[in-house]
């Protein structure tokens, strides 16, 4: 997935309850989830790729 980063940091540390959803080729973590919380270091709304939006909606709808 191509992503647009706008002054966004990467995830440097996280607890045991956090699931890593996406990394860069160098291993930097750029998307995480913990329960109902979703965090990304990129802006999926700035591209035509709807996969992150679909993932979010699927999770919200209990898919």
UniProtKB/TrEMBL annotation:
GO biological process: pyridoxal phosphate biosynthetic process; pyridoxine metabolic process
One Gene Ontology molecular-function label: glutaminase activity
InterPro entries registered for this protein in UniProt: Class_I_gatase-like, PdxT/SNO
PROSITE patterns named among the record's database cross-references: PDXT_SNO_2
Keywords attached to this entry: Glutamine amidotransferase, Pyridoxal phosphate
GO annotations of cellular component type: cytosol; glutaminase complex
SUPFAM superfamilies assigned to the protein according to its UniProt record, in alphabetical order: Class I glutamine amidotransferase-like
Origin superkingdom: Bacteria
Protein name: Pyridoxal 5'-phosphate synthase glutaminase subunit PdxT
